[in-house]
Amino acid sequence: MLTREEVRYRLARWHTHETVGPGPGSVPGDEGAARVPSAAAPTPAAVLVGLVDRADGPALLLTQRTEHLRDHAGQICFPGGRIEPGDESAAAAALREAEEEIGLDPARVGIIGQLPPYQTVTGFRIHPVVGWISPPFELRPDPFEVAEAFEVPLHFVLDPENHRRQSYRRGPVTRGYYVLPYQGRFIWGATAGILVNLARVLRA
Fold first, then answer.
1. pTM of the entire predicted model
2. Hey, which bits of 53-163 come out as E strands?
3. How many C-beta atoms lie closer than 10 Å to residue 102's C-beta?
């Protein structure tokens, strides 16, 4: 079982470990993390990769978006969003978004590090901010944006057997991506890519 200090230590040295891959947030074989064209400046965003301190081991806090949203409807994601001009840092943006989306009190979150930025094909450069969440806490999901908040055990994410590969074809281009199926849910896209990065960093 990983402790808070062990997670902090491994995050602090992620940049020295080759498993993270050559690109910003890329993981080996993850075409979905390709760079956007150089002519397009990526939009900075931040997400909170929240590790809840549970008695049987840390658990990751995730959300499922509501079905009526225009973008990424119904998808599973971390709390987060664009980094706004008033945000002092990626960590500040991630905490602000988590409070707005699910009512998570920033006082219950201790920032312990960051994962490598993850650049998406849709033009976002996502800064995954890792926080240690101390119970008890109460969540108040925004009913317009969040259908549900739930937890996934960290040990499930750390197991490479749960990192499935799938692909889709768009025109002449075939892109690969990760899927982590968990209790009838399918975690994929940038969220799955960030989780795979987290697993590789924490296993190092």
1. 0.87
2. 59-65, 76-77, 80-82, 109-114, 118-119, 124-133, 146-153
3. 22
